[in-house]
Design a protein that fits this description.
Elements: H1 3-30, H2 33-71, H3 74-104, H4 108-134, H5 138-163, H6 167-196, H7 208-229, H8 231-239, H9 242-278, H10 283-310, H11 312-319, H12 329-353, H13 361-382, H14 387-405, H15 416-434, H16 443-474
Helix pairs in contact: 1-5, 1-9, 2-3, 2-4, 2-6, 2-7, 2-8, 2-9, 3-4, 4-5, 4-6, 5-6, 7-13, 8-9, 8-13, 9-10, 9-12, 10-12, 10-15, 10-16, 11-12, 12-14, 13-14, 15-16
Length: 476
């Protein structure tokens, strides 16, 4: 990958992170906790009904895109996907609207008008943008995906201002904001595919057995991931209230979003190193590749996780509206749980390197069950204060289950010395963040805290960067 391509992808990634922050802030500013709770409840049900299958079919399309482009089938297969998605969106959107009418007493017709385009636009944008990157149309990919990232919150805010601050109107705005760039991407792909193929194309029958072998494990994995990360929203809404769900989901999203952004950047750069390393037939080489990535990942993860955990209160001032800031402790719990989940990715890479992804299934089941049961039990006992510990337990359950399942193939050696050095170096920053208990401080106090955080954080980053340089040099 050229420097220009890396710069484009980096700019696009940073812009999308900024857009996610803007979206969360707008949602928690313009919607009440109750309406935010209804939005997260609807999104969770729509996700389990459509996303596992749509994601698996979409990945099958990506996997075969280049060969289908050569044979001239790419545009035909994309149209097949969009037709199937349209049928699924109409069906699922109507059914979920009926369930919401029964559950919340809302009017069904207007809700269908919002949910159907929301489902279609969300999944269509996922399958329309990725081929642009695969086909090396990176400037178009970055432009359209960044446009969508900012257009969605912009039109969602416009919708709630013009039509009223409700979950339905917020989803309608998001749908329109996603639909327009997705339509542009589809039209651009149509032009690309038709310009590279002749007029007469023979469409080969789809190998159904191969299709099912590829898609069912991915769909199952997506379903289990939903069980760990979103099924708990339905439990929270049922056990507690829509208001509690809104505050919980918003705060949790704020903590998770920072760690997810880091994970995406890390994967974007180090995935090529990983795949080069595991192509070797030597088992020791595969183990060494995964361990070297863990030696880099875990110290940086400790640094970012600690800063987010200790800075939960000031982060809530930046990322969330005032009605949501009182539950800022959930940001810390989210950072802890997500850090453990990202660390579990080392085992995931080891399984992928050995082509034994079946070993990941028990961990997915363990995480999903612990998440739902933990939220139900601890939510009843401690209310919203029990939700964070429940999801941390789910991440720990997944981590240790992976360790047990993978013990014959890969043993993760924690870089304890470097992790300890990072913790010691960043401890002044953590203390400074914890002492930020009020936003009504003088400029001098803010400056003092900022200097301590930056200096101490730079010290922690130093030990992390040493590992990055070492890995990069060892794989050139």
């Amino acid at each position: 990958m050229t420097v220009r391509a890396l710069a484009l992808l980096g700019i696009g990634r940073v812009s999308q992170v900024v857009a996610i922050v803007v979206t969360l802030r707008c949602l928690t500013t313009f919607l009440s906790p109750a309406e935010a709770g209804r939005f997260y409840w609807l999104a969770a049900i729509l996700a389990v009904a459509v996303s596992p299958i749509a994601s698996a079919v979409g990945n099958h399309y990506f996997r075969n895109l280049l060969s289908w482009e050569e044979s001239g089938e790419a545009w035909y297969r994309l149209r097949q996907f969009l037709v199937g998605l349209t049928i699924a969106a109409v069906t699922v959107g109507t059914v979920v609207a009926y369930v919401a009418k029964w559950h919340y007493g809302v009017e069904m017709g207007p809700l269908v008008f919002a949910l159907v385009p929301f489902v279609f636009a969300t999944e269509a944008s996922n399958v329309a943008f990725a081929p642009l990157n695969i086909l090396s149309k990176r400037s178009v990919y970055v432009a359209l995906s960044t446009l969508a990232a900012f257009l969605k919150p912009g039109l969602a805010v416009l919708a709630v201002i013009l039509l009223g601050p409700s979950a339905r109107n917020w989803m309608l705005g998001l749908a329109v904001g996603a639909m327009l760039p997705a339509a542009a991407a589809v039209l651009y792909l149509r032009r690309c595919f038709r310009s590279r193929t002749g007029q007469s194309v023979v469409i080969a029958p789809l190998d159904l057995a191969e299709f099912l072998r590829f898609t069912w494990p991915m769909a199952t994995g997506s379903l289990l991931y939903w069980g760990q990360t979103q099924a708990n929203r339905l439990v929270v809404e049922n056990v507690l209230s829509p208001e509690t769900l809104g505050s919980f989901a918003a705060n949790y999203s704020a903590g998770v979003g920072i760690l997810v952004a880091f994970e995406a950047l890390f994967q974007q750069y180090y995935q090529p190193i990983f795949y080069r390393g595991v192509t070797s037939s030597e088992e020791d080489q595969k183990r060494e590749t995964v361990q070297s990535l863990a030696d880099v990942l875990l110290p940086i993860l400790v640094l970012i996780g600690l800063l987010v955990i200790c800075g939960a209160r000031p982060l809530s001032w930046i990322l969330l509206g005032r009605d949501f800031q009182s539950d800022y402790r959930l940001i810390a719990w989210a950072a802890a749980a997500e850090s453990v989940r990202i660390a579990s990715g080392c085992y995931h890479l080891a399984a992928v390197g050995r082509k034994r992804t079946d070993l990941l299934l028990p961990a997915g089941v363990s995480g999903a069950v612990t998440s739902v049961v933990g939220v139900f039990v601890l939510g009843r006992l401690w209310g919203i204060d029990g939700l964070g510990p429940a999801l941390l337990l789910a991440s720990l359950s997944m981590f240790f289950t992976l360790g047990i399942c993978m013990r014959r193939h890969f043993v993760l050696n924690l870089p304890l010395r470097r992790m300890g050095l990072v913790m010691v170096a960043s401890s002044p920053a953590c203390v400074a963040l914890l002492l930020l208990r009020s936003r009504d401080l003088s400029i001098l106090h803010w400056a003092m805290h900022l200097v301590v955080v930056l200096a101490s954080g730079a010290g922690g980053l130093f030990f992390s960067v040493r590992g990055v340089i070492h890995l990069r040099g060892g794989n050139q």
